[in-house]
């Protein structure tokens, strides 16, 4: 599994979300304390950036129509989305955030 450095932990606001690129893949990074979750940064319902949405508990809400996605599984937790978004592996190395797009576990 190949991990790519995408940002510093301090680049992600506590309880917030930012968008980054891993190669050509848009990724939304959500930080809660020292935990970071990575989801595909495109809503499966309306194809807009999820990183422009809001974080609520364990979900990321799309700003356009309010679809919510579980931070760990990518599954929709609120309509109108019915399809999940991919989630990616994250490692923290010191203050560096690394993401792998690989499906291997």
From TrEMBL:
CDD domains listed in its UniProt record: Rieske_RO_ferredoxin
Keywords annotated in UniProt: 2Fe-2S, Iron, Iron-sulfur, Metal-binding
Database matches in InterPro entries: Rieske_2Fe-2S, Rieske_2Fe-2S_sf
Domain Rieske: 4-99
Top-rank taxon: Bacteria
GO molecular function: 2 iron, 2 sulfur cluster binding; metal ion binding; monooxygenase activity; oxidoreductase activity, acting on paired donors, with incorporation or reduction of molecular oxygen
Gene3D superfamilies documented for this protein: Rieske [2Fe-2S] iron-sulphur domain
Keyword Metal-binding found: yes
Matches recorded under PANTHER family: 3-PHENYLPROPIONATE_CINNAMIC ACID DIOXYGENASE FERREDOXIN SUBUNIT, FERREDOXIN-RELATED
Name assigned to this protein: (2Fe-2S)-binding protein
Organism: Streptosporangium carneum
């Amino acid at each position: 599994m190949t991990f790519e450095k995408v940002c510093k932990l301090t680049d992600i606001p506590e309880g917030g979300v930012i968008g980054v690129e891993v190669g050509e893949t848009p990724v939304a990074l959500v930080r809660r304390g020292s935990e970071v979750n990575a989801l595909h940064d495109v809503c499966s319902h309306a194809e807009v950036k999820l990183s422009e949405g809001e974080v609520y508990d364990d979900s990321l809400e799309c700003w356009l129509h309010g679809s919510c996605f579980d931070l760990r599984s990518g599954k929709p937790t609120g309509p109108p989305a019915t399809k999940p978004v991919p989630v990616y592996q994250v490692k923290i190395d010191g203050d560096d955030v690394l993401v792998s797009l690989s499906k291997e576990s």
